[in-house]
Every structure is written in structure tokens, then in C-alpha cells.
Specification:
mainly alpha, Hypothetical protein af1432, globular, binds 2'-deoxyguanosine-5'-diphosphate, binds fe (iii) ion
């Protein structure tokens, strides 16, 4: 898939505000691609498409989990945790798109995962730090990325903040989120 085609796919599928967020994530991912020596086309594609399934119907998402034999634990969660893994299979099937680095980056953009590749880490981080994000601590993470240039530390710091936030709201933590937290606690150095 080319950048222009992916842009059109995202624009037609998503409400304007969400599409704009995806454009900012893609632009942020491009900046990070330069710093961390990653393929810019893959970063752009994963960024623009990462929230493709954000507004899909929940019942259909559960059907896809079953039909595509995705992690059955996903059935215990809602759109927040499902939209990444679902978007990855839908984009693969609908557009015959098979790049596993891009598909994994889309699938893991919410939870993270252990042993992520460079595109996965960039999208996970770009989603959190794109210019319109205002969470407490986001400027520190922008510094870790653009000044210190420590991507594993950024992934860890984001995951720690996510888990804290989820626990404060008594939310259930998906196993890949926990695996990401533990793996990057070690990998961050
Ligand atoms: O789609 P975005 O809004 O751009 O952001 P996202 O996909 O990174 O996160 C979507 C939501 O997912 C966010 O409100 C927090 C939630 N989330 C992330 N990890 C987990 C989670 N929710 C639960 N219950 N468990 C998790 O492990
Ligand atoms: Fe998302
Ligand atoms: Fe995220
Ligand atoms: Fe997003």
C-alpha cells in the first residue's frame, strides 16, 4: 500500500477528529523514523491506519476475534483494547496487505507488547506524544524521545503511566500491557 492510498482509506473510514489524530501520529512517527533509523513509509502507514477500527461495532469485533482466532482473552475487553488487534486483521484481509512490521505496530499500538520491533515502538510512542496530547508527564516523554533519544525508556515510561491510570480507575490490565511493562522495565537499561 502507498501513503496516498492509506491516507484515503483512513479519511473515508474515520470521523474528522480521529482522522486528524491519525495524521498527527503519522507525522510524529515520521520524525521518529529519522531519529531511530526506521523505514519512513512503514511508520507513516502504521500511523495513519492505527485507529482504523476505533469505531467498529463491538459485536462484530468479537466475531472477528473468534473467526480469526485472535487471543481469546480479548473477549474480556472492549473497544479500547480490541481496536488495534482488530484493525490489523481487517487491513490485512481487506487490502491484502501483509507487511508484518506495520500490522504488528497497528495491533500493539494500545497495549504494547514484549520484544517489540522498531515500527511497533515508534507507533506506540507516537500515539502517546502526538502534538495535541496533553496528559500529565507527556512533555517529559517528548524529551526522552527527541532529546535523550531513548526509545525503550519512552515505551516503559508510557506503559507505567498507562497502568497507573488504569489501576486508579479499577480497570483490568490486558496481559500484553503487563508483559510490555515488565519487558521494558528490564530493557530500558
Ligand atoms: O485510540 P487512542 O485513543 O488514540 O489511544 P490508545 O489506543 O492508546 O488507547 C485507548 C484506550 O485503551 C485508553 O483509554 C486506555 C485503554 N487501555 C490501554 N491499555 C489497556 C487499556 N484498557 C484496559 N482495560 N486494559 C489495558 O491493558
Ligand atoms: Fe488507538
Ligand atoms: Fe496508545
Ligand atoms: Fe490513536
Amino acid at each position: 500500500m502507498k501513503r496516498k492510498e492509506a491516507l484515503k482509506v483512513a479519511e473515508e473510514k474515520l470521523p474528522k477528529k480521529r482522522f486528524k489524530h491519525c495524521e498527527r501520529v503519522a507525522e510524529t512517527a515520521l520524525k521518529m523514523a529519522e531519529i531511530f533509523k526506521a523505514d519512513p513509509d512503514k511508520c507513516y502507514l502504521a500511523g495513519i491506519l492505527h485507529d482504523y477500527s476505533k469505531y467498529d461495532e463491538l459485536g462484530k469485533m468479537y466475531q472477528t476475534v473468534t473467526n480469526e482466532q485472535l487471543d481469546p482473552e480479548l473477549l474480556e475487553y472492549k473497544t479500547e483494547v480490541l481496536h488495534g488487534p482488530i484493525a490489523a486483521v481487517k487491513i490485512k484481509n481487506k487490502f491484502n496487505y501483509t507487511d508484518s512490521e506495520v500490522l504488528k505496530a497497528i495491533a500493539h499500538h494500545t497495549s504494547g507488547a514484549k520484544e517489540m520491533g522498531i515500527i511497533e515502538k515508534i507507533i506506540f510512542t507516537a500515539d502517546y506524544i502526538e502534538p495535541k496530547r496533553t496528559q500529565p508527564g507527556v512533555d517529559e516523554i517528548r524529551d526522552i524521545v527527541f532529546t535523550e533519544k531513548k526509545l525503550d525508556l519512552a515505551v516503559y515510561t508510557i506503559t507505567k503511566a498507562n497502568v497507573r491510570h488504569l489501576l486508579n480507575k479499577d480497570q483490568t490490565i490486558y496481559h500484553k500491557t503487563i508483559e510490555c511493562l515488565n519487558y521494558y522495565n528490564m530493557a530500558k537499561g
